[in-house]
Amino acid sequence: MAANNQINIFIVDDDKMLVKALKNEIEKTFPKINPIISTFESGEECQKAIGSKPDLVIVDFHMDSKVKNAMDGVKTIDMIKKHSPSTEVIMFTSVEKAETAVKAMQHGAHDYIVKNEHMFHKLNMSILQCLKLKDLKSEVNKSRTRVFILLFIVVAIIGAVASLQIWAPHLLERP
Questions:
Q1: For strand 88-93 and strand 111-114, is the pairing parallel, antiparallel, or unpaired?
Q2: Global pTM value
Q3: What confidence tens digit (pLDDT) does each residue in 84-115 have?
Q4: In the chain, domain spans
Q5: Fewest CB atoms within 10 A around its CB: which of 65, 100, 126, 149?
Q6: Using CB atoms within 10 A of its CB, is residue 53 exposed (0-12), middle (13-18) or buried (19+)?
């Protein structure tokens, strides 16, 4: 998770009422993570802010109600993953087609949620999974760093002993 126990979330959807409902649901359900939520009506708007590397992006599939020929959800996922590969993405859409879900997952979506009467519960569960996944990835990276440091120390010690054996073997002899 982000520093200070905060998480940076982007919501990319052209339905302002739904965006407001999503924002309220996330803030109500996850108050301990102190979410910083930014909203965008299109993938193009999101692209302008992707440099801040959000922890999580919730993206709609169709976002052309306000801007014709706007970037669709899959292209938005591609853009997000290109600029911020560690960002988790949830596709949140009214499109209930298996091929769309598969395509979203193939392009890097963590989950695919259909907008229906169960959407908030499913979204909350998916956000929780994303948070756990980010924590696990962070722990793996910390462990890798520790292993690398220990390996470096061991190699340095072996190198020092080998150098002593070559250049000053008398220092290694027992009295």
A1: parallel
A2: 0.78
A3: 999 999 998 887 888 888 889 999 999 999 98
A4: 3-138, 142-172
A5: 149
A6: middle
